[in-house]
Write a structure and sequence with these properties.
Elements (H helix, E strand, L loop, with lengths): L1 H4 L8 E3 L1 H5 L3 H12 L3 E3 L2 H18 L6 E7 L4 E7 L3 E6 L3 H5 L4 H18 L7 E5 L1 H10 L9 H4 L2 E4 H12 L3 H8 L7 H15 L3 E4 L4 H12 L1
Parallel strand pairs: 1-2, 3-6, 6-8
Antiparallel strand pairs: 3-4, 4-5, 7-8
Helix pairs in contact: 4-12, 6-11, 9-11
């Protein structure tokens, strides 16, 4: 029980992102959550979200002993997607209002993808890249694909196996065709219930960044916002 764990929900550090940023009844929802759980949620802006994810990724790269002078970090979310260019001297970030859920549900999906692509290109051009940055990715789509490449599925997912997995673009294209050939029941077993409706769009977004960053592979990590929030909380204390 919570009492035996000595867990005080009033001291929990909890954040919420795009969904609550856009919801017109966000304050009402968060108030109900606080009344029911005693946990106070903070709505964080895209910059804070990306910065915390970057903090987690820097620690993950150290943990896995991946040495790089610069990298692009891609975080594909449900309502938004973040791309960060990090070097030893600077950190440039951009939050795009396109995610696997919002794009999947859009009536003008193709037009939004084209607009998304142009916004990504504009940001990459503004980074003035002078080296060959590593392509790092996190969140549901990359980690799911990494798990499948290791012979895992939704039920057997293991982040310790997923962390540090190298995914090739060609490998992803092949996996996409395999997933599209499955029945709904088979797809749910592979990627999980609730993700089956969005995995195709997620892969489309992932491949878009491969093309615009001119990358043939990406290194995948499970670490993200959650770990960043925890690290930040520890640093504050």
């Amino acid at each position: 029980s919570i009492e035996k764990l000595h867990f005080d929900p009033t001291k929990a550090v909890a954040v919420t992102t795009h969904a609550m940023r856009k919801a017109t009844n966000a304050n009402e929802v968060l108030q109900i959550l606080e009344e029911k759980t005693k946990v106070t949620f903070q709505i964080i802006d895209p910059t804070t979200e990306a910065t915390l994810t970057l903090l987690a990724m820097k620690e993950a790269l150290k943990r896995e002993k991946v040495q790089t002078k610069s990298f692009f970090l891609l975080d594909i979310g449900g309502g938004s997607t973040e791309l960060i260019y990090a070097t030893e001297k600077k950190q440039l970030l951009k939050s795009f209002p396109y995610g696997i859920v919002t794009l999947s549900q859009a009536n003008d999906k193709e037009q939004k993808f084209q607009k998304f692509a142009q916004e990504i290109k504009n940001f990459i051009d503004s980074c003035n890249i002078e080296d060959e940055p590593l392509f790092v990715s996190t969140a549901g789509t990359p980690t799911t694909l990494a798990a499948l490449s290791k012979g895992l599925n939704y039920q057997t997912y293991d982040k310790t196996i997923v962390n540090g997995t190298i995914l090739d673009k060609q490998q992803i294209l092949q996996r996409k065709q395999q997933l599209l050939s499955l029945s709904k029941e088979e797809l749910i077993l592979e990627v999980g219930s609730g993700r089956d409706d969005y995995i195709d769009t997620g892969i489309g977004i992932f491949l878009l960044f491969f093309d615009l960053l001119h990358k043939k592979s990406s290194i995948v990590f499970d670490d993200g916002l959650r770990e960043g929030v925890a690290l930040k909380a520890c640093m504050v204390k």
